[in-house]
Prior knowledge:
By secondary structure, this protein is mainly α. It is built from four helices and no strands. The radius of gyration is 14 Å and the shape is elongated.
Amino acid sequence: MKERFDNTLPYIIVTVVFYYSLPLICYALKSPFYNLTPVVDVCVSMAVGFFFGKRFGGDWLMALEAAVVFIPCVYMFFNPTAWIYVLVIAIFSAFAVFIGAVFRKRGR
């Protein structure tokens, strides 16, 4: 089990950096694109999930961690209607992980 967490750690760090830095930057710059940050977060979680899946194969733990890491963002940067993005991130990240796993198998 520890190895699974060790495999996901660098990918989760990248995800956390994007989840938390992008809203802060948009807010500091008073950017009109602030409302699009949850959509960008979904795209980032898909990209990170794809590369994780391509390297380590399909593991649902990555998708779960990506969704759990987004939960504090709901309270810090968005309003309660952003809770739906936790589910969206979990689903799309899991999909991307398994697509990456398919590409991993094809590369061999």
